[in-house]
Structure formats: C-alpha cells, structure tokens
Write a structure and sequence with these properties.
It is a single chain. The protein is mainly beta. It has a single domain, classed as Pnp Oxidase, Chain A (Roll). The chain is 14% helix and 36% strand. It has 4 helices and 14 strands. Strands 1, 2, 3, 4, 5, 6, 9 and 10 form an 8-stranded antiparallel sheet that branches. A two-stranded antiparallel ribbon has the order 7-8. A two-stranded antiparallel ribbon has the order 11-12. β2 and β3 form a beta hairpin. The longest helix is centred in the N-terminal third of the chain and has 9 residues. The structure holds flavin mononucleotide (FMN). Flavin mononucleotide (FMN) binds next to β3 and α1.
Length: 187
C-alpha cells in the first residue's frame, strides 16, 4: 500500500541510487522517461538533483510546468523501464503502449507510476546555469510516498525479488538492489 513518507526522510528513497522513472505534464500532455542520474542533495527542505537531457520530451514538459515526479520501478517493471528510456513520448504514448498505469500526484501536476515502490513529487528550483550547462535540475521534494511492504519506518526492506529496485549499468544491463548489511563504526 502506498503511504506518505515524512519529507525529512524522503531522500532516503534515493540513497541507494536506483534507476527511476521521471514523469512530467504540461499543456494536456503527460510523459515518462527512464532516468538513472537522480540523486539526493539535501535533507531539509529535501532536495534532489536530476539530469534531464535537452531535446527530450520530458525536458520540454518540465521546462513548461516546473514540476516532475520520480518513481522507483522494481524488477517487475524492468522491461518497461528500459523501453521508456529508449523511445520518445513525442512519437508514442508510452503509458498506453507499454502498460504503465498512473495515479495523480498529490501536489504536482505530473502523475506517479503505479507498481513502483517509492515516489517523490518535485518542484524545480531556479538554477538556470546548471540547467543549461549540464541539463541538471535541482528540485525540492514537496511530497513523498513509499510502498509500506518494502519501505518500513524509513528503511528499505526488500524481501521479494520482484520488489527490488534496479540500477542501470549500460545498454539494458541492470543490477537489482542487493543484500542489506549493517556497517559498524571502527574504534
Ligand atoms: C536505464 C536508462 C537510464 C537513463 N537515464 C537518463 C538520465 O538520467 N537522464 C537523461 O536525460 N536521460 C536518461 N536516459 C535516456 C532517456 O530516458 C531517453 O532519452 C528517453 O527516450 C527520453 O524520452 P522522452 O523524449 O519521451 O522524454 C536513460 C535511459 C535509460 C534506458
């Protein structure tokens, strides 16, 4: 079940570096793309950084709306995740074609992708330099959600393989999120 995540804990959703799905909406169009270059940037207020390349349809919609969402797909969504990173929403309705269901965001206009295990609703902060030079968006997290079967009391607990998030290496090869281990601080 999707439950809210406290904003101060929301960047924990990204600390393990999963490949994500970014959605954006503007002017009656909605789109989704794969994005691996997404990272936590600050705790409070929570901020993230995301690379969204110039020329993508998603970039056009983010530029128009100033908002986007980040959804964390699982192994069960691997092929759809890869595929929406290999084609453009200018040419195809990726949601309908690749069977991705959505639910509305609570605060932003862009939707959340169903079947994922974590979700961040984001508003772009004005950083025109990095945006233009590096396609790098800095955004504030204004709402966050997680599947309470997998993200328990602010911590990931993957028990079923199909729930594991994925990490892109290259050309469609991914790792899934692995074993949980506890480090101890050396004396
Ligand atoms: C696994 C994967 C990860 C990707 N990560 C990023 C990323 O972090 N930033 C980016 O701009 N494009 C990334 N891409 C490429 C976009 O998803 C791709 O350009 C997409 O076709 C853009 O779609 P759009 O034109 O519908 O927005 C990635 C692609 C794949 C397959």
């Amino acid at each position: 079940m999707r439950v809210p995540v406290e904003l101060r804990r929301s960047v924990r959703l990204l600390n393990h570096g999963p490949t994500t799905l970014i959605t954006a909406s503007a002017g009656g169009r909605t789109n989704v793309m794969a994005a691996a270059w997404v990272m936590a940037l600050d705790f409070n207020p929570p901020k993230i950084a995301a690379v969204v390349a110039e020329g993508t349809f998603t970039r056009e919609l983010i530029d128009a709306s100033g908002e986007f969402t980040v959804s964390l797909p699982t192994l069960a969504l691997l092929d759809a995740t890869y595929t929406v990173g290999e084609c453009s929403g200018r040419d195809v309705d990726k949601f309908a074609t690749y069977g991705l269901q959505t639910t509305p965001g609570s605060v932003v206009s862009a939707p959340l992708v169903e079947g994922c295990v974590g979700w961040l609703e984001c508003r772009v902060l004005s950083e025109p330099g990095p945006q233009q030079r590096y396609d790098l968006f800095v955004a504030e997290v204004v709402a966050a959600w997680a599947d309470d079967e997998v993200f328990v009391e602010g911590d990931w607990r993957f028990t079923r393989d199909e729930h594991r998030t994925v990490h892109h290496l290259s050309r469609g090869v991914f790792f899934t999120t692995g074993q949980r281990v506890q480090a101890r601080r050396l004396p």
